[in-house]
């Protein structure tokens, strides 16, 4: 079964963007990176009202692969509209290691990053990752286990290479599996 609307969720630096790019290529679905909508040029956070308007317009479309968390209050409408939910459940230590590598790549100019509200050194960025990992993961576990338990869900280990993750997703979709933790 090929899904037309996929919500890809997980912690910061869990691998959502990388997986979205690869999975979007395979499925042909248009990819939306919520960080690109959440942050204004210069690193300021978009207002919740402005983000909500854009988010609602995206959800109304017939096909999408939306990756990211965005504002917590807008997560439920996205999960409700999604035909499939993919939760990239990456351990905090891996997210922090990736965050540090991302920060280093930004300094070297090898990576064009979406600005983060902390904007400074690793400790503030690490605090942001830790905070969102803790609060966002708890919210996701609650929503996916209670409110959206009826939805097709896949929980993937974000430590795996993107090629393995795509192979797992492709295999699950082709076999018609509607919900299966990996």
Identify the notable features of this structure and list them briefly.
alpha/beta, disordered C terminus, 7 helices, 6 strands, Rossmann fold, 6-stranded parallel beta sheet, P-loop_NTPase, single chain, Cytidylate_Kinase-2, Adenylate kinase, 182 residues
Walk me through this protein's architecture:
This is Adenylate kinase. It comes from Chondromyces crocatus. This protein is of the alpha/beta class and 182 residues long. The chain has one domain (5-181): Rossmann fold (3-Layer(aba) Sandwich). The chain is built from seven helices and six strands. The protein has helices spanning 16-27, 34-38, 48-60, 75-81, 92-108, 122-147, 162-175, and strands spanning 5-10, 31-33, 64-67, 84-89, 153-157, 179-181. The protein has a six-stranded parallel sheet with strand order 2-3-1-4-5-6, sandwiched between helices. Strand 5, helix 7 (162-175) and strand 6 form a beta-alpha-beta unit. Helix 1 packs across helix 7 (162-175) and helix 5 crosses helix 6 (122-147). The two termini are 18 Å apart. Residues 108-122 and 178-182 have low confidence and may be disordered.
